[in-house]
Amino acid sequence: MKTRNKLLLTAGLSLGLAEFANEMGAVFETILGAGDKLKLAGLTDLSREQKIMEEDNKNEKEKRKRWEQNGRNTACYVKGYDDAPIYCKIYIQQEISDKWAVVVHGYGCDGSALAHASKKFYDRGLNVVAPDLRCHGRSGGKYIGMGFTDCRDIINIIRLIIRGNKNAKIYLYGVSMGAASVLMAASERLPENVRAVISDCSFESADGIIGYELMHNLGLPPFPLVNILNMLCIKRAGYDLRLASPIDRVARIKIPTFFIHGEKDSLVPTKTAYRLYKKARCKKALMIIKGAGHGVSALVDGERYWRGVFGFIERAG
Predict the structure, then answer these.
(1) Does residue 103 contact residue 154 with C-beta atoms inside 8 Å?
(2) What's the pLDDT at 91?
(3) How far is Cα 27 from Cα 180, in angstroms, rounded to an integer?
(4) What pLDDT sits at residue 2?
(5) Alpha helix (H) residue ranges in 2-96
């Protein structure tokens, strides 16, 4: 009888573990797999930010459409670090310019989400490269890189720009996961062509932000769920979430870096910007945009925002 009960208990536990493993696999694919992230976005209240973006698009849509149609625009695929094709939209100045902005979007969207920023850089005389990060938009790849693999792709984009323009002055600009990507890229040994980095609302670490969202938006404990997701990430995506960590890399950055964050950011806590800024040892600046939520600082107070960005770029040279 005892043996039978033990076998039944073991079978029950095995079935439970199998179901749990399947659930965690599904969660992993939802967060880091390719595909639409609308359901996931619905778990986080970004309705205020969405309203701001919709209003901006409504007001500026026609201007950006004419800019797209009349400019010297092209597109290409850049080979990612693992040969994944990374789609890049490129906006070339009518007159020759050595200045380039690499504009990097955040999680769950594509390069077109930062059209307002791309146009700002272009209007100030910079050529612009706006990539779709891996697993986003028209780019390839099987799993989202949370900045870790993306930073290597960005380095390939930098090399391609320099190959075509050896005198290029390159400025890296990223928002949210794009900001994490440019910070981690800047922590590598980059050519002197890269003159400045602008990081808007970067997270501190991938495992940290995933744990934060699990706890605050789903009411789930970060431990052991994040640990399990990381094991799946290592096995399936080939990288360790703990290494997707701008907070552990900023001290290595030698390029002038500008940190920006919204005061009302409920997705990535505003204190993150202060921590990143404090750990950075390069020439640096920090701007907190009053009343701005996640990723919309440039739309909430555009005058102060862009005055700060372009002033920083001019000082960087």
Answers:
(1) no
(2) 97
(3) 22
(4) 44
(5) 2-32, 38-41, 47-70
The total number of residues shown for the chain amounts to 317
* Buried residues in 193-210 as b, exposed as e (16+ CB within 10 A): bbbbbbbbbbbbbbbbbb
| pLDDT tens for each residue of 261-283 | 999 999 999 999 999 999 999 99
* Residue 17 CB-density burial (10 A; 0-12 exposed, 13-18 middle, 19+ buried): exposed
Task: Tell me what the mean pLDDT of segment 14-24 comes to.
Answer: 74
Domain 37-205+244-316 part of CATH 3.40.720.10: no
Question: Helix (H, G, I), strand (E, B), or coil: what is residue 123?
Answer: helix
Measured between alpha carbons, how far is 125 from 173 in angstroms, rounded to an integer? 15
What pLDDT sits at residue 62? 85
Ramachandran area for residue 103 (φ above 0: left; ψ -120 to 50: alpha; else beta): beta
User: In this structure, what token pair is assigned to residue 172?
Assistant: 């890296």
* Cβ within 8 Å of residue 200, ≥6 positions away: 173, 174, 175, 176, 179, 260, 261, 295, 297, 298
Single-letter amino acid code for the residue at 317: G
Report the distance separating Cα 102 and Cα 237, nearest Å. 25
DSSP 8-state assignment for residue 143: B
Looking at residue 243, its pLDDT comes to 96
CA distance 254 to 248: 14
Residue extents of the structural domains in the chain: 37-205+244-316
**What pTM value is reported for the model?**
0.92
Alpha helices per DSSP H over 222-301: 222-232, 271-279, 297-300
